[in-house]
Amino acid sequence: MTAPLTEQAGGRTDGQQPAVRLQAVSKTYGQGKASLLALDNVALDVAPGEFVCLLGASGCGKSTLLSLVAGLDAPSAGRIDVDRRRIALMFQEPALFPWLTVSANVEMALRAKGLGKRERRDRAAEYLEIVHLGGFGRKRPHELSGGMRQRVSLARALAQDADVLLMDEPFGALDAMTRDLLHDELERIWRERDLAVLFVTHNVREAVRLGDRVVLLSSRPGRVVEDFPVTLPRPRRTDSAEVAEQAGEITQRLRQEVMRHGAAPNRVPREAAPDAR
Amino acid sequence: MAADTHARQIAGLDALELAPARRAGLLTRAWAGTWPVALAVALVLAAWQLVVLAGWWPEYVFAGPVTTLTELGHRLGEAEFYQALTVTMRRAVVGFALAIAVGLVVGALVSRIRPLRRAVGSLITGLQTMPSIAWFPLAILLFGLSESAILFVVVLGAAPSVANGLITGVDYTPPILLRAGHMLGFRRLTLYRHVILPASLPSFLAGLKQGWAFAWRSLMAGELLVIIANRPSLGEQLHFARELADSPGLLATMIVILVIGILVDRLFGLADNALRRRWGLHQVTA
Ligand SMILES: Nc1ncnc2c1ncn2[C@@H]1O[C@H](COP(=O)(O)OP(=O)(O)OP(=O)(O)O)[C@@H](O)[C@H]1O
Ligand SMILES: [Mg+2]
C-alpha cells in the first residue's frame, strides 16, 4: 500500500490509507478480434472498516473485479493496492472441497496459518455456530442444501480472519428469511471486526440494506457510473420504507444504464478494445 | 429479533431443506449386486454347454462345463493349487505395489514439472499401448528366466496407467478449487498436497483399476513364458495343461484366473463407489 493519495478516487478515506485502492484498472479478456474489455478504467477506494456494495447488471465485470483485487488474476492496466495477506474472498459458488467434511472445510482456512489440530477444530466450530450450522460439522458439503453450503463458505471466509472481505453474491442462493438473518449476522461481524467489505450483489435492496456506499457499474465495458452514499441509520431493514425509497432511486439509474444497451445485442464481443491507457 | 429466535428460525428452515437420508438395506443391496452376476454366469455356462453339444470339437479337446467344474472342485481340495495361487498372488501384489510406487513418483513429477511433462508425457501414453508381451524378450535377456524378469514386465505394464491416472486428475482439478485453495493461503507444494492431490483421487483410482488389469495380464503372459523350476504358478499350470492336452485342467485354471481378475476389479469398484458416495458424485451418475 504505497500509492500516494489522489483525489480522483471516490470514497471515504478520512486521510487514512484505504484498505483497497483501484486506480485506472482495466481488464481485457482474450486477444485480437475476440477480445473483450470487461473492466475499463475503474477507480475505487474502500476505506478500512467500510462496507461497499458493488451493483451492476449480469456480466458487467463484478466477479472479474473481485478476482483482480484478490490477486487471482492480473489487471491488463492500472494498479491495485491491497494487503494480499489479509484478504478473504467468498466466491459466487460455494467452492467447498468435496472430500472434506464441513468442519474440515472451515479448518482449511486455519491450516495455512499453522494452528494446531485441536485449536483448528474448536475455531471451526465457533464459525459454524456463527452461520447457524453448529450441528453440521461432520456432514459432507453435498449433503447440505445450496444455501447451507453458501453459509459454510461464509464461515470459511470469516475463519481467515482477514481485514478485507470480498463477497461475490454470497446470499443469492438463500431464501429471503435466511438472507435477512445473515444480513444481521454479517453486519454484526463487520462492526465487531472493523472489516472492509466489498460486497457484490444484483439485489438493490440488499445493497442499500448493507452498504455505506453503493457503487454502480455499467456493462460492457464495466465502468463506475455512480457512487451512492447510504446514510440511513443502522440497523436497517430490507423491507423498510427508507431502504425501499433509496433502492428505487438506484434502480432507476440502473435501468437507464441497462437501457443504453437496449438497441445493441448484449452479448456481442467488442471489436478491438479501445485503448484505455 | 433475539439471537435465540434467529437460531431457531434458521434451524427450522434447514430441517426443511435437508432431504431425509434414504439408503436401501444391506440385503436389498446385496441381492441387487448378486442376481445380475448369477444370471451372467448361467448364460455363459449355457452357451458353453451348447458349443460342446454342437460337437465341433471332441470332448477331450474342449471339455464341457460339468467336467471342468468337477476338475476345478477337485483342484480346490489340493495343496498344489494353493501353492501355485500363493506364488502368483505374491507376484501380483509385489508387482502391482511396485507399479503404484513408480507410477506415483513419475506421475507426481511429470504433473508438477512442465518441461518434464513435454518430454515424457506422451511417452507414458505410448508405453500404455505397448503390449506387455513384447517386453518379455528384452526382460529375459536382461534378467534371465527369473522373478525379476516377470516383475519388470508387470511394473512396466501397470505403472503408466497409474501415472496417467494421477496426471489426468491433476490436470482436471476444478479451477474453482485451485482458486479457493489459493485464497486460503496455500501455495505450490501445500496447494499440491491439500488441494490438487485430494482432488485427483477419483482419477487416480481409475488409473489404479486400469493398472491392475494391465498388471494381471502382464503377469499371466509372464508366467506362461518364464517358467521357473519348482515354483508352481497359475500361468505355469496353464502351460503344462496345454502340453499334456488336459482340457478340463486348462479350462479350470482359466476360470480361476478370470475369477481373481474380476474379484480384484470388484474391490476397486467398491472403493470407487465409497469415494463417490463420500464426495456426493453418485447422484450424478445414478
Ligand atoms: N476467463 C474469462 N475469459 C473470457 N471472458 C471472461 C472470463 N471471465 C469473465 N469473462 C467475461 O467478462 C465479463 C464479465 O464477467 P464477470 O464474471 O466478471 O461478470 P459478473 O458481473 O460477475 O456477472 P454475474 O453478475 O452474472 O456474476 C463477461 O462478459 C464474461 O463473459
Ligand atoms: Mg459474477
Give an overview in words.
Chain A: InterPro entries: AAA+_ATPase, ABC_transporter-like_ATP-bd, ABC_transporter-like_CS, ABC_transporter_ATP-bind, P-loop_NTPase. Chain A: This is NitT/TauT family transport system ATP-binding protein. Chain A: Pfam families: ABC_tran (PF00005). Chain A has 277 residues and is α/β, with parallel strands linked by helices. Chain A folds into 2 domains: 27-83 and 163-277, 3-Layer(aba) Sandwich (Rossmann fold), CATH 3.40.50; 96-162. Chain A contains 7 helices and 9 strands; from the N terminus they run βββαββαααβαβαββα. Chain A has a 6-stranded mixed sheet with strand order 5-6-7-3-8-9, sandwiched between helices. Chain A has a 3-stranded antiparallel sheet with strand order 2-1-4, with helices on one face. The two termini of chain A are 22 Å apart. In chain A, 47% of the residues are buried. Chain B is mainly alpha-helical. Chain B has one domain (65-278): MetI-like fold (Orthogonal Bundle), CATH 1.10.3720.10. Chain B has helices spanning 3-17, 26-54, 65-76, 79-112, 114-129, 136-143, 147-171, 175-183, 188-199, 201-225, 234-243, 247-279, 282-285. In chain B, α3 packs across α12 (247-279) and α10 (201-225) runs antiparallel to α12. The longest helix of chain B is centred in the middle third of the chain and has 34 residues, at 79-112. The two termini of chain B are 44 Å apart. At the A-B interface, β5, α2, α4 and α5 of A face α1, α8 and α9 of B. Bound molecules: adenosine-5'-triphosphate (ATP) and magnesium ion (MG).
